[in-house]
Amino acid sequence: MQALSAHAVTRTFPKSTVIISEGDPAESLYIIVSGRVKVFVADPGGREIVLLTQGPGEYFGEMMLDEGPRSASIMTLDKSVFLVIRKADLREFLVRNPGFAVRLIEKLIHRVRSLTASVKSLALMDVYGRVARLLLELAEERDGVWVIGERLTQQDIASRVGASREMVSRIFKDLTDGGYVAVQRDCIVVNRKPPPHW
Q1: Whole-angstrom Cα distance, residue 178 to residue 174?
Q2: pTM (2 decimals)?
């Protein structure tokens, strides 16, 4: 990343700025220096599905290499700083750095696997199952406690699992009452694994 950044221009965007729109021409790779973004798709009515969120050290826009348009939109969740690399510079860098090219391929494979799992859950799981799966995917162990450190609202979760906020609210109430999760001011604690079905 340090070597690649030598080809980059630094750009800063305020919170809640759409910096890439689905369908736009794809011309640049973005490396996140600071801040967070969400990657999402939306229908003409404004209903959106959040595919993932990303933070410092991660990058997006690498799918420009196939010459197609942007496949998703990107919005900043905080004030964010990016290193922006033009397509031509990235192509040249990949030719000269095959190790990075392999790593990029591995990352793309990981994303395809993740999106395949998401499509499977949308098609085959009920809303409760999708919420439970998302919580387990996001939880990280900290001193023996499973915590989701990302600041998620119930609307954020609804956007990720393709459901209404009201439905997610009911599921969270059940999970909280059952002692499976505890919602704190800055995180969600997963006390124990939610049951596969409710």
Answers
A1: 6
A2: 0.69
